[in-house]
Amino acid sequence: MSPPTQWLARKGDEVSDMRWAPMTGATNLVAGDWRSAVSAATYDRHNPASTDDSIGRFAESGLADVDEAVKAAATAQPEWQRRGAIARGQVLAEFARRMRAHADDLATCLTREEGKPLAEAKGEVLRSADVFDYFAAEASRPVGMTLASYRPNVRIQTAHYPVGVVAIITPFNFPTFIPALKLGPALLAGNSVIWKPAPATPATGMMVTELLRGSGVPDGVIGYLTGTTAELGAGLVDHPGVDAISFTGSTAVGLAIGTAAARRHARVQQEMGGKNAMVVLADCDLDRAVRMAAESAFGGSGQKCTAAGRILVERKVLADFAAGLTEAAGRLRVGNGLDAGVDLGPVVDAAPVRRIGAAVEDAIRQGAKVAYDPAREPAWDGGHFVGPTVVTDVAPGMRLFDDETFGPVAVVTAVDDIDEAIAMATSSYGLTSAIHTSRLSAVYRFAERVPVGVVNVNQPTTGVEPHAPFGGVLLSGSPHRELGPAALDFYTRGQTQVIAVD
Q1: How crowded is residue 240: how many other Cβ atoms within 10 Å of its Cβ?
Q2: Which of 430, 435, 424 is nearest to 472 (CA)?
Q3: Average pLDDT, stretch 209-220?
């Protein structure tokens, strides 16, 4: 990626109010200044499709950086709150406009860091702008209630106020969209925010952060800390000046954050892992189900918490479904996301390549069969690539069936009927699901009996819209929803006001 100063130079007057520090370690934003970590430590990030392509050098932040950022955020928050919701919404609307204006540059940076194809990256950026537009519009929604009282000359009303300083911790797989789910409602509610991005996608987050500042977010209201260590995340969660933590990532880390937050009674929002079931019944449109399964299992190289983790196919159509999915996988082109015609980019780094391969080998040893595994292409050399893979005869007890794969592997299991499908779809995870059928009775039975946050009917397991509540249950999430009108609840504290009017 070009240094940020070069990126700005190509944009002219529209971004003349924006300031960048070159990506040589001064990548933390604290109190309106881009700076290095207090320790001066750094880490390097490279393109996962071509590891000799350096993205840059980034601050390796620690506890001292957390403390500085929290103090700056706490100082800036009251004035941001006093601006009022309408003014804050106007800032978010301006940011959405700027995000669309710079969508090509943001998408290029995103693809270089995360790996997804350029068209997919641009789509993510534009959907992120939609989220900010949605929350900008929420500024004009009525808030609170007026209630009658049993007592004469008494009025009861409710109000909502920002919680204060919010830490948001985001993953690599959607480096603009998932932050949008959190930054939008947190800032609209009047909070200040400290954002810790995934270590793999710091430059994309820098771009987003500077565009926010250029849209009118005051110095200190948005803080940005890069780093790779568990100490950084733990420092944010444990800091007494952080009032709330919103986290998206693995279940193990999310549960640890919840435990740590509970020790000091800080509020926490967790969107965690999923092992999402897609059920394919014999009475469905099979061609459509194959398309939706390929999208759910392979899209984003499978690196989605909403990906189809297990595809449960009624036995009488299993052979035709597996053949169709194998054919669909064979049509996908894997390569550098910046190249034209690429459908799947790399996975984020070397560790998933090893983990995914080990899980497939473990399933084969236990009797599973690989229906499709593409030959390795010479163009994959020098990158972290996993081709779209179809594995059949996968059974409970195998890692591929039980654990989140987070890679482009379609896990196919035969079931005899809807009841067996429901039993196999039910697990300790509860994020999303999908059922493909022409029977409304099967849809309702599935929705009532499988505990998940989102049920999709004749759709992929993936897909989120700004105005629809999103979130999981069980080990996939906390009760606090993201998106939709209820998204603001987590970022505000409610108050009941009882007022004598005589």
Answers
A1: 8
A2: 430
A3: 96
For the question of residue 271 being annotated catalytic, the response is: yes
- Active-site residue flag, 305: yes
DSSP-assigned states of every residue in 63-111: HHHHHHHHHHHHHHHHHHHHT-HHHHHHHHHHHHHHHHHTHHHHHHHHH
Task: For 367-404, write each residue's pLDDT tens digit.
Answer: 999 999 998 888 899 999 999 999 999 999 999 999 99
Among the listed residues 94, 124, 305, 404, the single catalytic one is: 305
The values of phi and psi at residue 278, to 5°, are: -115, 120
Cβ neighbors of 478 (< 8 A, separation 6 or more) are 258, 268, 269, 270, 271, 471
What does DSSP say about strands 244-248 and 432-436: parallel, antiparallel, or unpaired?
Answer: unpaired
List the 154-162 sheet strands across, edge first: 146-147, 154-162, 492-500
pLDDT digits (tens, 9 = 90+) for 5-53: 444 434 443 443 444 455 778 999 999 999 999 999 999 999 999 999 9
Give the whole-angstrom CA distance, residue 163 versus residue 77: 10
Distance CA 410, CA 298 (A): 7
Residue type, 458: N
Which residues have a Cβ under 8 Å from the Cβ of 259 and sit 6 or more positions away? none
Tokens describing residue 358: 């080990």
String of DSSP letters for 296-319: HHHGGGG--TTSEEEEEEEGGGHH
Chain CA centroid to CA 27, Å: 22
Q: Are 113 and 226 in contact (CB under 8 A)?
A: no
Contacts of 463 (CB under 8 A, 6+ apart): 306, 456
Q: How far apart are CA 62 and CA 233, in angstroms?
A: 9
Which tokens go with 282?
A: 């014999």
Q: What is the DSSP letter of 378?
A: G
Catalytic residue among 271, 295, 314, 482: 271
Q: Which of left, alpha, beta for 119 (phi over 0: left; psi -120 to 50: alpha)?
A: alpha
Q: Are 349 and 365 in contact (CB under 8 A)?
A: no
- Whole-angstrom CA distances from 212 to 96, 180, 295, 375 are 9, 11, 32, 44
Question: Which tokens sit at 16?
Answer: 């003349």
